[in-house]
Amino acid sequence: MIARFFLGLGLCALLLVTSFATYVYLGGRNSKVDVVAQKPTVGSPRPNAFTLPGTLYLSQNGAIYSYSFGRFHQLTIEDGWMQPSLYPDGTYMLAVHRTYNYSDVYILTRFGQRISLVVNNAGSANNSDTGSKHWSFYPRLAPDGATMWMSYDEPKVGYDVPLSIWEMPVNGRINQGRLWTNSIDYTGGDIQPIPLTTGGIMYTKYSRDDNGNLVGQLWLSMRPSPPANGLTLTTYGAEGQALTSATDDCSSPSISPDGHAIAMICTYERQDDRLEIASWDGSNIGTRRALIINQLVAQPTWAPDGSGIAFLAPAVPGGQFQLWFLPKNAYNPPPPPPTPIPTPTPGGPYHGLAPSPTPAPALVAPVIKPIQITTNAGFDATSPLAWAG
After folding, report:
1. Nearest 5 degrees, angle CA 109-CA 143-CA 163?
2. I want to staple 308 with a disulfide (CB 3.0 to 4.6 A). Which of 18, 109, 327, 368 is the partner?
3. In which element (H, E) is residue 14 found?
4. In which element (H, E) is residue 8 found?
């Protein structure tokens, strides 16, 4: 009975970790239809098919793929690989390797070969205790290329495994890391850190509203708190300040290449999602505009050249997540041409008495719809996209 009790606790812990905030957010809205997705490399691009600029990296069924010139290439085997993110100079990438009871962070080449292990969370080789192992998700490098940010399940007590935001040297050890945020228990914690050029991070914090529903907020944290009450910087952090309200239920921030705009997913605590963008001045988010309101959207990512936003979404309700692209003109349309002014005729047919002006027809910008890139790939909607120019 005792063994079964601890096995049950371990399974609960694993369920809690693998159902951390983004999984919970998407899990209630994902397809219940058992459809086997094809490998992205199976299909051939259609003649004159739309192609994206640069190279996009994304995950499907535990493998990382690249997409360039209209074709997919498999970079890793199907063995728990997910959440790729690129070095600032584009030379290498970070990626998460996930097993059933822990996850590690590796440095890979852009072609998927392992370079080194950054965070080893397996614990002792002979230790099967889940509570002694750790989880790392959403690794990102700061602009300096030397500091790595991630969601990490420390501090924790026993099988309580909320994810908090940590920083550490990418060529160092986790004991050199610093805790930046204190996550809220039993919510999934703090995830998706985005390093800022001004220092600090933007991230998603999950909490419970007054009705017990799980909601996301974008937060800004510019520095860890100074030591207090005998705690050191490695064990004490600060959440920072909220950038969105809890009732908006926003997550998955992505900052534009020029650093002046941000894309995000907001649900307003409803079942439908909204892909929104807003201005960003490094400290505050401006008025938000909804770009897509009728799709289950995940992982918005700006093109490196600013030409648009890629994202994942089902093509039909309850379907698998496919790759889409929203061109820039869909959210930043060119101004309409000026209304031509008629040239008056001397004398004219009205003998100098001008007729009542006829209102010019309103010029409406054309509706530009997102472009569907894949049809049956079934990408991992919990794995961010990485995009190199």
Report:
1. 80
2. 327
3. helix 2-18
4. helix 2-18
Q: Which two tokens stand for residue 179?
A: 């805790």
End-to-end distance of the chain based on CA atoms, in angstroms? 57
Cα–Cα dist 63/380, whole Å: 10
Exposure string of 131-163, with b = 16+ CB inside 10 Å and e = fewer, is: bebbbbbbbbbbeeeebbbbbbbbebeebebbb
- CA-nearest of 86, 11, 295 to 75 is 86
Domain 249-332+369-389, what fold?
A: Neuraminidase (2.120.10)
Q: pTM for this structure?
A: 0.82
Domain ranges of the chain: 249-332+369-389
Mean of the per-residue pLDDT values of the chain? 82
Number of helical H runs and strand E runs in the chain: 2, 24
Residue 286 and residue 278 in contact, taking contact as beta carbons nearer than 8 Å: yes
183-220: string of b/e by CB count within 10 Å (b at 16+)? bbeebbbbbbbbbbeeebbbbbbbbeeeeeebbbbbbb
pLDDT digits (tens, 9 = 90+) for 49-82: 678 999 999 999 999 999 999 999 999 999 999 9
Burial class from Cβ neighbours inside 10 Å (0-12, 13-18, 19+) for residue 304 reads middle
> In b/e form, how buried is each residue of 33-55, taking b as 16+ CB within 10 angstroms?
eeeebebbeeeeeeeeeeebbeb
Residues 6+ apart with CB under 8 A from 112: 64, 74, 75, 76
